């Protein structure tokens, strides 16, 4: 039965890391990335939809994202949505194509971004630790209900801790890589 608890916990920890990786992609580095515009929503026939549903978003070069609206009348709305986002970007229209140049980041901005990456990492670690706690409590309940022995509990808790440590070290490695990416000029 402890194998079920372990499998469930490990699956949820893996999901936490996937969510963390997605959050890291949205943190700006010096380079352009289409994922940077994922959080932007545009008004489309009365409802707010993600930018990727009304335009083709791709890289022109290392510092420029191009946004190609699928409908001509969407250009101004897309440009306004990008400009008003908290990303600090200034899009420019070239006919139907919207170019979004990445301004170089100041040292202060880079430090803010690394702090943001660390905070995201800490949130992911908290999620992993909460899953560890839940798994340990489930094992303790099994012992209390006489479905497992105390030796099984000790082994399970050690196993759960190893899995937790592995996931936390993966999060630390991802944060360190992102920090290097942000600080690279």
UniProtKB/TrEMBL annotation:
The keyword Cytoplasm applies. The keyword Cell division does not apply. InterPro entries: Ribosome_recyc_fac, Ribosome_recyc_fac_dom, RRF_sf. It comes from the Bacteria. One of its GO terms (molecular function) is ribosomal large subunit binding. Signal peptide: none annotated. Residues 20-183 form the Ribosome recycling factor domain. Gene3D superfamilies: 3.30.1360.40, Ribosome-recycling factor (1.10.132.20). CDD domains: RRF. GO terms for cellular component: cytosol. One of its GO terms (biological process) is cytoplasmic translational termination. SUPFAM superfamilies: Ribosome recycling factor, RRF. It holds the Pfam family RRF. Keywords: Cytoplasm, Protein biosynthesis. It is found in: Cytoplasm. Belongs to the RRF family. Responsible for the release of ribosomes from messenger RNA at the termination of protein biosynthesis. May increase the efficiency of translation by recycling ribosomes from one round of translation to another. This is Ribosome-recycling factor. The lineage of its organism: Bacteria, Pseudomonadati, Pseudomonadota, Betaproteobacteria, Burkholderiales. The gene is frr.
